[in-house]
Every structure is written in C-alpha cells, then in structure tokens.
Design brief:
Order of helices and strands: HHHHHHEEH
Number of helices: 7
Shape: globular
Number of strands: 2
Oligomer: single chain
C-alpha cells in the first residue's frame, strides 16, 4: 500500500507547522522501509529517493533562514503583501499548474552524487539534514505572529511573490508531493 502523505488543508501557522512535522515523521518512517540500494538508485529516469530528500532540504533551508531574519529587513528586501493570503488549495493548484507547464527545481535541484561506498552514514546524513531544517522551520514559524504571515512577501523562483503563509502552504504541499512521488515510483507499475 502506498502512503498518501495526506496534508489536509492547513491554514494557520500552527497547522502548517504541524503538517510539516507530520510529513517529516511519516516520511522518515516510510524512507526507513527502503533498502539502501532503493534509497540511492534513481527511480527510472527520475531522481532517487535520496535526491528527493536532498531537494526538500535544499528548498526548505533558505526559507528557514529567511524567516529567522527581522521582519522589517524582509519587508525592505521583498515588500509587503495585502494582508490576505490565498488558501492552501489555491497555492496547491498554482503549483500543480506550474508543474504541468514544465516547472523544474532549478538551483534547488540536488547535484548528482555517485552511489556512496558506505551508504548507511550518507543516508543518515541526508535524512538528518532534512529533519534538522524541517524542525528549524517549525521553530521559526512558531515565532511569527499569525497576522504577519499575510503581510510579508517572499520570492518563490517559480510561483513568484508569495506571502509567508502561502510559502508555508507551498512547502507543506511540495513536501507531500515529493514523498508521494518516491512512494509511487517505489511501488512500481502496479501502483
């Protein structure tokens, strides 16, 4: 059975943070069911599970760093939003349309790595890096007042300017999307 990595439709900062935490827990649990060979082997012409996890870490790290900066500095750099954010569903659809239009990971794509000679420590390093940045992001979200999530803009390389709430909604859906791709491809053609 393929895990669905369900997200629900989180809206508040707390709900978005909790959704990231739940995806991290279920993702780490699922990844532990893959052999080292499965973890590091490309899934057909697609990335390996290791590459997906590295991509999730690469994509979340700048957000965690950015949200830890003073809000006035972010406003000076990226501007203010209208005080309203699109729903989780609207952000999800925006991302799905971008994918259908050929959107790529760009600079957030993992660099190719040869299969490690000693897979166990490298695998743990990859999963730990993703875990650390996700927990860091959750901790940073907790320091943001709810109203500020709609007032601050951040640049997304594919979707354009998003409010912090929209960026967090994207991050939740993006994480679930990649975990689903790993599980679907690992299950094979019968999935």
């Amino acid at each position: 059975m393929i895990p669905d990595f369900e997200t629900g439709t989180p809206a508040s900062g707390r709900e978005l943070s909790d959704a990231l935490g739940a995806l991290l827990a279920s993702g780490v649990a699922y990844l532990s069911t893959l052999s080292d060979r499965q973890f590091f082997t490309p899934q057909g012409s697609a990335w390996s599970p290791a590459d997906h996890v590295r991509h999730l870490q690469l994509a979340a790290a700048p957000l965690a760093r950015g949200l830890s900066l003073p809000r006035w500095l972010l406003a000076l750099r990226f501007g203010h939003g209208t005080g309203r954010s699109r729903s989780f569903e609207a952000v999800r659809e925006l991302y799905r349309k971008a994918l259908q239009g050929g959107a790529q990971a760009g600079r957030f794509g993992p660099r190719p790595e040869p299969h490690p000679d000693d897979a166990v420590p490298r695998r743990q390093e990859i999963v730990n890096a993703w875990s650390r940045v996700t927990v860091e992001l959750q901790n940073v979200i907790a320091r943001w007042p709810e109203h500020a999530l709609d007032r601050q803009l951040l640049p997304h390389p594919v979707l354009g300017p998003l409010t912090v709430r929209e960026m967090l909604a994207f991050t939740v859906y993006h994480t679930a999307h990649h975990l689903r791709r790993i599980a679907e491809r690992a299950a094979g053609p019968a999935a």
